[in-house]
Design goal:
- The strands form 2 sheets. A 7-stranded parallel β-sheet has the order 8-7-6-9-10-11-12, sandwiched between helices.
- Helices cover 33% and strands 15% of the residues.
- The chain is built from 11 helices and 12 strands.
- 40% of the residues are buried.
- The two termini are 22 Å apart.
- The chain is α/β, with parallel strands linked by helices.
- The chain has 2 domains: 115 residues, NAD(P)-binding Rossmann-like Domain (Rossmann fold, 3-Layer(aba) Sandwich); 183 residues, NAD(P)-binding Rossmann-like Domain (Rossmann fold, 3-Layer(aba) Sandwich), CATH 3.40.50.
- It is elongated.
- This is Glyoxylate reductase/hydroxypyruvate reductase.
- It comes from Octopus sinensis.
- Belongs to the D-isomer specific 2-hydroxyacid dehydrogenase family.
């Protein structure tokens, strides 16, 4: 079996596929493969395509690959980059890594909440800029999580992980909004509420949902207007869930207090993008799942998906 791997990936995933005797050809770089190169390379006829969330697996790629291609496995949770309709039309099986990065991303979300609540970046910058004078009772005051109402949009694996962790901070209430009520919400004391109630009641809102037609631009001018002026917004889901122009205006006009985004639209956000000069906003470069543990595990899950499909079995992450 021949597999095309669109990036340098962690060794555990490589080993699993090599141990199966597969021939692996790589785009041997840490940078994303240009789309035209991917199309060109797929003409060499592969049984499997092992891709990343940066690779647009569209009709052109699938047509170049032809009928030899049986598996498309993405080393990511998100699969917006896979044209599932075109993939399924060709009887190709696609799979993602739905499980392994949830702890990692939820830990990161907690980090963002604490950084924003305690104004850590401002404190760090003040020290660097030599602005640290004698102790002041009213300087860089943040807020505590104890007694607060926390909201989660999307109580999937990541949202659940955030809920488990945030409960340790003796919060007063945990609210969530999702497309439907989740059967396991009581396991984390989470109350299913309308989107409007979540917006109105929460001190911190964490976005951990996918980007779909329903979630696109969900956080827009109207939503920000319903939030508390002291509210903090965290996004570890997908950039498109937040209307960034509206967010920028809401922060600059003090409609809400602060926000931290690990995902943006586009991703990466160009260095001259106006969002970078927004007040009380921290942007991190899509690193919520960047740990050795998560990336090694993701490489293995995607490899196991590939092995299952090419052995005629259903992969764990079948889409
Ligand atoms: O796996 C994904 O979908 C990611 O966004 C990586 O953090």
């Amino acid at each position: 079996m021949k597999i095309y791997v669109t990036r340098k990936i962690p060794e555990p995933g490589v080993k699993l596929m090599r141990d199966k005797g597969y021939q692996l050809d790589f785009w041997d770089s840490d940078e994303a493969i240009p789309h035209n190169e991917l199309v060109k390379n797929m003409k060499k006829k592969y049984d499997g395509l092992y891709c990343m969330l940066t690779d647009n697996i569209d009709k052109a790629v699938l047509e170049a690959a032809g009928s030899q291609l049986k598996a498309v496995c993405t080393m990511s949770v998100g699969y917006e980059h896979l044209n599932l309709e075109e993939i399924k039309k060709r009887n190709i099986v696609a799979a993602n890594c739905s499980t392994v990065s949830s702890d990692c991303v939820s830990e990161f979300a907690l980090g963002l909440i604490l950084i924003m609540a305690r104004r850590l970046i401002e404190g760090y910058e003040a020290v660097k800029k030599k602005e640290w004078g004698p102790w002041k009772p009213m300087w860089l005051l943040g807020f505590e999580l104890i007694g607060k109402t926390i909201g989660i949009v999307g109580l999937g694996r990541i949202g659940f992980g955030i809920a488990e962790r945030v409960n340790a901070f003796k919060i007063s209430k945990l609210l969530y909004f999702d497309v439907r009520r989740c059967s396991y919400d009581k396991d984390v004391n989470a109350e299913f509420v309308t989107f409007d109630r979540l917006l109105a009641d929460c001190d911190v809102i964490c976005i951990s949902c996918n980007l779909t037609n329903e979630t696109k631009d969900m956080f827009n001018k109207a939503a920000f207007a319903k939030m508390k002026r002291t509210a903090c917004l965290i996004n570890v889901g997908r950039g498109g869930v937040v209307n960034q122009d509206d967010l920028s205006k809401a922060l600059n006009d003090d409609v809400i207090k602060c926000a931290a985004l690990d995902v943006t639209e586009p991703d990466p956000l160009p260095s001259d993008h106006p969002l970078h000069s927004t007040k009380n906003l921290i942007i991190t470069p899509h690193i919520a799942s960047s740990t050795w543990e998560a990336r090694n595990a993701m490489s293995e899950v995607a490899a196991n998906n590939m092995i299952a499909i090419l052995s005629g079995k259903d992969p764990a992450g079948k889409l």
